[in-house]
Each structure stands twice: as C-alpha cells, then as structure tokens.
Amino acid sequence: MNQRVNSRRERKNIKYGEFEKIKRIVIDEKELQNLSRNTIMNYNKVFTALNDYFSNRINPFEITPKEAKEFVKYLMDSHVHYSDKIHQTGIKRGLKASTINSYIKLCKSIYQTLKDLEYVDNNPFETIKCLKRQNERIKTIPKEEIKKLLDGLDKQYYTDFRMYVAIHVFLDTFGRIDEVLNIQKQDIDFENRTIYFPITKNNDSRYVTFSNKTKNLLIELIDETKELNSTYIFLSINGDRFTNQAFRNQLKKYCREFNIATNITPHMFRHTASMLFLENGGNIRVLQKLLGHRKLATTEIYAHVSEDLMQIQKENYSPLNQIMSNGNKYIRARSKRLR
Q1: In what order do the strands lie in the sheet with 188-189?
Q2: Highest mean pLDDT among 11-15, 17-21, 265-269
Q3: Residues 6+ apart with CB under 8 A from 257
Q4: 143-308: CATH class
Q5: Within 10 Å of residue 27's Cβ, how many Cβ atoms?
Q6: Which positions fall inside the Tyr recombinase domain (predicted)?
C-alpha cells in the first residue's frame, strides 16, 4: 500500500507529457498478464499516438474526458499513418473506424490499469463509445495478380524462391505474418501435413493443414538453407530469421518490378484465402477454426463483403428455383478443402 501512496505523490512532480512513465507502468503490468507480443506492440502504438498528440501540453495522469474525446477526434481527422512516415508517399490523415475502435479500447485499458493501481482517480476514456463502422471493405488480391507475382519470381535465386514459398504458405494456411515467419522446423508435421502456430494474435495456438505442393516447397527450402543451421524456416541470406519489415519491403519491391497495380500487404493473402475459401463452398465455421478466431462474428465479416459470394449463394439457394425445379432439392457442394 505504501508503494501506491508514493505513486500518488510522485505524479505531482511528473513532467508534463511524460507518457513514457505510464507506458512503463502499464506495459509491465500487461506483461505480467502474459498478453501476446502483438497486443503489447499495439499498446506501444497507442502510447506513441498519445505522446504525439498531447506532447508537453498535458500531464498524462490528469487527462480529462473532454481531452480524451479530443484525442479520438485527432485520430479520426489528423493522425498520420505509420507507413506514410517511413515511405513519404503522400500524407494520408485519419485512421479507419476499426483501428480507432482498437485505440479506444486500449486507452480504456491503459487508464483502467492506472486506476486499479491507484495512480489515477478516474478513467477519462471510460464513457467514450466506439465508432460506428461503415461497412469497411476488406482488401483482397485479384487472382490474376497473385499469379503474376508468382510467375514473375525467378526461383533460381534464393530470395525469389523464399518469397515464392512464403506466398504458398500464406495462402495455404491462412496465416498472419508473425505466424508464418516464426515457423520453425519442429512446428511442421510433414507426414500429416500440419503446421503448429504457437505464436498467435490472441495467444491461442492452433494447427493448420497444407497441401502437397506446399509440403514439397517447404522441404526444398529447408534443404536449401540447411547449412545456415537455424531452426527457422524463413531466413535472411545471413541466416537470421526473416523479419516482418524485411518481408514487407521485399514484397513491395517485387510488386513494383512486376507492375502489379494492387498495393499488396502480407495480411491481404489471409483475406484473399478466406474469401476464396467461402466462394468455393467452404464452411464459415471451418474458416473460423482456420483463422483462429474466437468469435464467429469476427469471421462473418468475410461473408458480407464478397459480391461474388452473394451472387453464388443467391443462385444456389434461390427460393424461386427450388419451387420451379419440380421438387428437386439442391445438394450443397462440399468444400474442396475438406475432401
């Protein structure tokens, strides 16, 4: 209890804008809760945004609900995307609603933690509601552009072959970039054609299956890198684990070289695989398991955004067609992935 009393007294001497202090307090507390690495990274992003906006103007322990609302307005209208700061390809300000909602939830958690530890009396974000989402469109990659990317890679070169294998793994496993680039040899069961993802966004490990073609590619890649003596599958030319940023940069380079119009990101492979899975008759609950979603509602967003899927479902389950087909029942196509 003495420590908490001291922390209350300390805040009177806090230098304005010193979000680094509450960042250390909160991150230490969250790490004790065994949150995933991605969640911790998201907390860090929020602290960066808080510091960017409030700077030296506000004591972080004394933010008011009015100032918290002003911060949300800043996220909506003025916050610059992280990628724009690096590549300087033009300023795009304002985050999308789903991202802002994540920031709001994290801000609530930050100040609730401070309140629980008795660093603050009130949570200024407590009454702020999440934004209404206006049917944000999931970004997918046209099939012809995926083929163009794969066909353009020269598999005689290690870096091109590594990208070729990675794209197959992304599409075959529905994996996130952290999950795929952290695959180690012991995570792969070649006999049963499964990969174990121990590091996931929500800390729920899962197994995913892969095709015979991906199996052969992985075996070839492992053989190619065996002299580097690493447990990881995807490696830099120096033998280190291939990093997320290095992968993103290389993917952008290939898209420029092959004149691919779509601004492809690693997560778009996951979106594209999910959409194609449903459009080919895949079951939404099976997709939920493949994606590692805890809630079906998270997965159902894919069922709402595909115009092709809507048309397919309309034709397959048309009440009029069933009435006019002399009583013949429509037999639902089995998922190709379950055969």
Answers
A1: 188-189, 194-197, 206-209
A2: 265-269
A3: 152
A4: mainly alpha
A5: 17
A6: 136-315
Q: Does residue 76 register a pLDDT over 70?
A: yes
Instruction: Give Rg (Cα) of the chain.
Output: 24
Terminal alpha carbon distance of the chain: 61
- The DSSP letter of residue 329 is P
Residues 177, 247 contacting (CB under 8 angstroms): yes
Q: What is the pLDDT of residues 24-60, one digit of tens each?
A: 999 999 988 888 777 888 999 999 999 889 887 888 9
CB neighbourhood size of 315 (10 A)? 10
**pLDDT tens digits along 153-204:** 999 999 999 999 999 999 999 999 999 999 999 999 999 999 999 877 777 8
Residue 250 pLDDT greater than 50, yes or no: yes
- DSSP letter at 204 equals -
> How much is the pLDDT for 21?
87
- The tens digit of pLDDT for each residue in 261-275 reads 999 999 999 999 999
Q: Return the ∠ at Cα 220 (arms to 218 and 225), rounded to 5°.
A: 95
* Domain segments of the chain as ranges: 2-116, 143-308
pTM: 0.68
Give whole-number Cα distances, 207 to 132, 176, 196, 204, 215, in Å: 34, 13, 5, 10, 15
Three-state DSSP class for 205? coil
DSSP letters, 213-252, are: HHHHHHHHHHHHTGGG--SBSSB-TTSSBPPHHHHHHHHH
Q: b/e string for 210-230 if b means 16 or more Cβ within 10 A?
A: beeebbebbeebeeebeeeeb
* CA-based nearest residue to 282, from 209, 339, 211: 339
CB 111 within 8 A of CB 123: yes
Residue closest to 47 by CA, chosen among 82, 18, 23: 23
- Collapsed DSSP state (helix, strand, coil) of residue 293: coil
Share in percent of the chain as helix, strand, coil (round to 5): 60, 5, 35
Sign of torsion, CA 210 214 220 226?
negative
